[in-house]
Amino acid sequence: MQAMLWSPNADGSVTCRLCSHRCRIRKGGKGRCGVRANVRGALMSLANEVVTAVGMDPVEKKPLYHFMPGTKIFSIGSAGCNFSCRFCQNSNISQVPASGMVPGRRTTPEELISLAVTNKAHSLAFTYNEPTVFFELVYETARLAREREMPSVLVTNGFMSSDCLRALSSSITAANVDLKGFTEDFYATYCGARLQPVLDNLKTIKKMGWWLEVTTLVIPGVNDREDELKALAAFIHDELGADTPWHISAFHGAYRMADYPSTPLPTLEHAWRTGREAGLHFVYIGNVQSIVGSTTFCPQCGATVLKREGFAVRVTGALGECPSCGVTLPGIWKR
Ligand code: SF4
Prior knowledge:
The chain is an alpha/beta fold. The chain is 25% helix and 22% strand. Helix 2 (109-118) packs across helix 3. Bound molecules: iron/sulfur cluster.
């Protein structure tokens, strides 16, 4: 299928405008994501209407903690990625093999919506691999979901172009965006990408009004320096707001860092305190058991509002409301 968001060049190459790499692709070539190819002077999507994984997840698994808690989200993944993270947790689907064969099975937006409805999903997530690179499927499926009043969510590295964000602005309700580190050096060395476009997009997403949560995978000795985490937390507080939930996630060895040690709990708890000291109201610890790091506290009086055990949620009082002082917490609480 011919891709969306690209421009032809006089020499037969094409420029893909889907993400911040803006690949210029010569005839017969592919973009960095491995799933967009120049075929006879036109940009084709090789991942369109291809899925590698679909299934029902707890919304907390995305992770989204202030978005319809306790509900099930129909999750859709395709193939390819515009990043090349050494620590990728889903490299079997994100990294297209050298043979160029895109894994997965054919589907349609209509079939995905029908599966979501049959499974009584409350919402849809484009997740598992980077949704930007299967934009055409996201665009059409989210549009159909909106017609059925089913909210759609992106779980993304936040490296899309402003054209891509604009095109999705009215179809997406919420996003969890990875902020993987806070230096250009980290993004270049470990992810094959750049930090600044992610920061710019986070600010744009906030302004567009999507419900936004941010995730950082903390890798010991790589992106856990005190000054880096402080600067990252300050960015969330100052640019996205104190009410933006920040998920600090434990690293476990994967892909090219399979032999690397897991993040110790004290490192995660230290990062949690850094977030709270920066003034963030909602800081969470994921991928590991932590009572304090899985609880939502009222920012006004400190009472416990939501408790989580694994992906199960226990609500105290009315959903999204502090049982002690009655203040309504930021988020999308309706089910
Ligand atoms: S989506 Fe990004 S990485 Fe893929 S071809 Fe387009 S600009 Fe390049």
